[in-house]
Design a protein that fits this description.
With 183 residues, this protein is α+β, with helices and mostly antiparallel strands. It contains one helix and ten strands; from the N terminus they run H-E-E-E-E-E-E-E-E-E-E. Strands 1, 2, 3, 4, 5, 6, 7, 8, 9 and 10 form a ten-stranded antiparallel beta sheet that branches. Strand 8 and strand 9 form a beta hairpin.
């Protein structure tokens, strides 16, 4: 009788403890699987970011890219405006520039919104400087009635670009957006 009670007690204990043992081993397996997939994802992400960096490097060196703005802001503390027109672009290819961007003219209110819509192959002082985060491209161009504009494009390897247009007559205007290759 004592053996029977001992046997039933062992079976009852195993019935209640069994799922906990199985659950613990399942959690360990799941944790190992999660760590391996996390490491694989991190490796894929690093490879993808390295490939993106190579693409940005090649299009900047080749002078073959397009800047697509998403926001614009008059500096130093103007209102930020979101741009949704897909025709707004700033393109560099070979030794030419094509621009179609809204621009804010005026130093004091009332400001006027105008459209810089022109192209030129007369880019002066074209400089590309590689930084830790990407590239800085800058040059001067004479547009519209002999006004000298300075274009500074700060390209980040991972998160887009910032274009600043400045001249002697008006406040700077800054655009944020993305860089893409011209096909």
């Amino acid at each position: 009788m004592k053996r029977l009670l001992l046997f039933l007690a062992c079976i009852t204990a195993c019935t209640f403890c069994g799922p906990y043992v199985n659950e613990a081993s399942a959690q360990t397996k799941q944790h190992d699987y999660h760590n391996s997939t996390h490491e694989e994802r991190a490796a894929r992400r690093a490879a993808r970011l390295e490939e993106d960096k190579k693409i940005i490097d090649s299009i900047v060196v080749a002078r073959n890219f397009e800047f697509n703005p998403m926001t614009m802001q008059q500096m130093p503390a103007g209102q930020m405006v979101f741009l949704s027109n897909i025709n707004y672009t700033f393109t560099i290819w070979r030794d030419a520039m094509d621009i179609c961007l809204p621009y804010i003219a005026g130093i004091t209110p009332p400001y006027r919104r105008v459209l810089l819509n022109t192209g030129t192959n007369n880019m002066q002082n074209y400089k590309t400087v590689q930084t830790d985060n990407g590239w800085i491209v800058s040059f001067n161009a004479v547009l519209y009635a002999e006004i000298d504009y300075t274009f500074t494009l700060e390209i980040n390897d991972h998160s887009g670009a910032t274009l600043t247009i400045s001249n002697n007559w008006y406040n700077d205007v800054q655009y944020t957006g993305t860089i893409s290759q011209i096909y």
